[in-house]
Amino acid sequence: MTGTYSDEIWWKSAVVYQIYPRSFADSNGDGVGDIPGILAHLDHICRLGADTVWVSPVFKSPMADAGYDISDYCDIDPLFGTLDDVQRLIDEAHARGLRLLLDFVPNHTSDRHPWFIESRSSRASPKRDWYIWRDEPNDWRAALGAGSAWTWDEKTGQYYLHFFLPQQPDLNWRNPEVVEAMHGVLRFWLDRGVDGFRIDVAHCTGKDPTFADHPRCLAGEALVDFNDQPYSHEVLRGIRRLVDSYPGDRVLVGEVNIRSTASVLQYYGAGDELHMSFNFPPLDAPWDPIVFRTCIREVDTLMRPADAWPTWVLSNHDNVRHRTRYNGSLRRARAAAILLLSLRGTPFLFQGEELGLEDARIDPDRRVDPGGRDGCRAPLPWTEQPPHGWNGAPPWLPFPPNPGQHSAERQWADSGSIFHLYRHALELRRASPALRLGDWEEIDSPPEILAFRRRYGDDVRLVCVNFADRELQFTPPGKWRAALYSEGGPAAGTRFPGKLEREQAVILEPET
Ligand code: NOJ
């Protein structure tokens, strides 16, 4: 029955804005974004209408993997600021009605973490078993182009395991001391008032205890793309129990990097693991109605009966931005914004998509990331004129194309900009229980149009996306008026004329 599977718990209605701190805003002129920079621009997020912020790692790190290699989970890297800055960020966010999620990286530390330094100091070290050491490697492959997942340690004559770079040794979560230490990290931040965590590669803490070779690794794939072991679920249940012991509905959203909704679903457990998991097929999807229809249907078919709340994401710091994926088309990016913000589930926005940014083109001599992900990590242009709000040293990466035109300043001032499209769509979402929490039902439409109804009690909306590069006729049953077109179209509030321009999307409300 409509509405019985959803309630108003905050994270179901939330719209999450991902901040990649290095590239968000620089306050001290060193060319790298920082926490005071985030503080100075929190109002941008409020103006947009997102209500939750996820901040990618700001902890102490040698930066072999841009902060996903942590050498102290309970301190902040000087590049980004101080512990006090983070406390101010938590408090200032809360003062504005925003929730704040930090990034929790449980699978691996930095090789400079004191735990690993101790572990590799001798085979007899009390922390030897905090990491995974073996006499012989198997064929497991690491991600980020790192080759074998095993690195030889000369001094102690064994190999250690790393699913990512050799500078990111994997923790051994079967050791209760590791569990206790990592729970201590969570408590440290929960006590400071964070509203939850995004959990990095949440499906990776459990390793195959037999260390069997894997044919997919032999074929060149990295283990992180399919590691799916029962023990990761036990780890997550432990984390969930801890988080649930805190007041205030703190949330866990996990990165489960497996491209299968059925597998991702397992990480919700019996309501005792992740509250939400990323589901990445749309992150790879080209501008194609069949691909979108297939993954949206699959999510509804599998997740709704299981009472697992979906998430939607088109871009993040690890993948080519969706506008770039759609051949640079702003028109498609605008239509995709309507789709993203009207599906059933919590949307995650990646900083800059609200400005219509494309990936930056990075010359080989400017490349930073060993995994080749620099393009989407380019700095946000704030002001129209160079240096676009980055007023000291030039930013650590070049700007995306047309930074002046896509600057926040220009976008705020132009009521027809993609920024205001996002803002308006979020306003409609906030005002409509159907768009936030309602059920999702596809309606008959031409194959190149994706059309669906959202309904919560009496509240109903219809959403139509024309993927075709030509105008198409489409008359949905009933009488509808347009609440918001992605671009063009007749004035909002007028009757829907039964046609969609090329690559145009619309949110419709019933005519009263
Ligand atoms: C996933 C993160 O999103 C990515 O940026 C990072 O390189 C790996 N996990 C390793 O932490």
Summarize the SSE layout with pairings.
Layout: H1 10-13, E1 16-19, H2 35-40, H3 42-48, E2 52-55, E3 59-60, E4 72-76, H4 83-95, E5 99-104, H5 114-119, E6 133-134, E7 150-153, E8 158-161, H6 176-191, E9 196-199, H7 215-218, H8 230-244, E10 251-254, H9 261-265, E11 276-277, H10 281-284, H11 289-303, E12 311-313, H12 322-325, H13 330-340, E13 346-350, H14 408-413, H15 418-431, H16 433-437, E14 439-442, E15 449-456, E16 459-466, E17 472-473, E18 480-485, E19 499-500, E20 505-510
Parallel strand pairs: 1-2, 1-13, 2-5, 5-9, 9-10, 10-11, 12-13
Antiparallel strand pairs: 3-4, 6-8, 7-8, 14-15, 15-16, 16-20, 17-19, 18-20
Helix pairs in contact: 6-8, 13-15
Bound molecules: 1-deoxynojirimycin.
Features:
8-stranded parallel beta sheet; alpha/beta; 5-stranded antiparallel beta sheet; disordered N terminus; Immunoglobulin-like; binds 1-deoxynojirimycin; Oligo-1,6-glucosidase, domain 2; 3 domains; TIM Barrel; 512 residues; 17% strand
